[in-house]
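Checklist before submission:
- one chain only
- standard amino acids only
- sequence pasted in full

Submission:
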Amino acid sequence: MSTPDQIDGAPHPRDTATLFGQDTARQTFLEAYAAGRLHHAWLLTGPRGVGKATLAWQMARFLLATPAQQDDGLFGAPPPPETLDIDSEHPVVRRIAAGAEPGLKVITRTPNPNTDRMRDQIVVDDIRSLAGFFQLSATDGGRRVVIVDAADEMNSSAANALLKMLEEPPERATLLLISHRPSGLLPTIRSRCRSLRLGTLAPDDMARAFAQAGFEVGTEAPALAELSGGSLGAALRLSLLEGLKTYADLVTLIGTLPRLDRQAAVKLAEAASARGSEAKRDLLFELIDLALSRLARTGATGSPPSVEAAPREAETFARLAPNAHAGRAWAQIAQETGARVQHGIAVNLDPAALVLDTLIKLSQTADA
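Returned file contents:
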C-alpha cells in the first residue's frame, strides 16, 4: 500500500535514483550551497508529479551526507560539490533508505488515532512533533532536515505552527516544503522560504523517468506527455489506469457526434460505474474535461492539437471546433459539465447516469 507521499503503483520518491528534466532547480540549490547562502527553508513548487518530492529527498541526502565547507588554513576550503548525487553506499543514504536516519524528519498526513483512517489534512500535532525532533537531534551538532509533503495539505493550525518555526528557525536546520499550489499557502510562509520552481517534463525526459520507474511505454511516451501536461505523476496514473485506452475510446465516441453512439456511450458509462472502479471513474471525468479543453483550444486557435493523444483526434476536433464560436461553446459546456460532475459525485449520484448525462450534453452542443 502506498503512503500519502507516494503514487499508487510507483516507486517512492525516496527510492528514485535520478531526477530528469530539473537541472535548473538542482543547480540553483547547489550554487546557493557553494556560495554559503543556504536558506533555512526552501519551497519546491510546480505541477503535481514533476519531481518535487524526488528533489527534496535528493537535497536531504546531500545536506546530511556532505560535510560543512571549512577552510583548514593551509590548503583552503575543498572545492564545492558539483552534484547533489551521493554514493548509494554512503551511511546516510543507507540509513535514509532504511528509515533510520536521525537527522531527517518527514511530515505527511497521518492516520487519525481514533478511527485509524488516513486524515485528509496535516494537523497541528504533526507539526508540533518537530519540536521533539529538533531537541533530540541537536545533541550531535549535525544538520537536521525536514521534508513537508505536501505543505498544501496543512490545516490552518498546522500552518501557523510551522510559521512560528520559520520565524525562529532552529540552528543548522533546513526545511523543504513541497507545494503543488503555493498560492494557497500563507503569504508569510512563502515569504520566509526561498522558492525553487520545477517545470514540466519533455517527452524524452518522461520516457527516461518511466524506464527508471520500471515502466516500458515505448511509442506511448508522446501521448502520455501530452495528456499529463508533462507531469510524470499524472502520466504514471494514466498508464496504471489504462488512461490512453480510455481517452482513445472517448475520442472515438466524440467522433460520432452530433449523433451520439448510444451503445458505445452506455458501455463507457457502465465501465465507470463498476464496483471498485472509483479511480477509473474519476479519471474518465478528468479525461472528458481534458478533451473539452482541447476542443475549445482547437476552436480558439484554429489548429487542432499538434501531438495527437488518440487516433484521429486532430481530425475529429477540427471538425467539431472549426472556429472561435464553436471553441467558446465547448469551453462553456466544459464549465457546466464540470460543475455538474462535482455536484453529482458529492451527492452520490449514479456514476453511469452521470456519465451518460455528460455525453448527452456533448451531443447537444455538437448539434447546436
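Reviewer check: The first strand starts at residue 41 and ends at 45.
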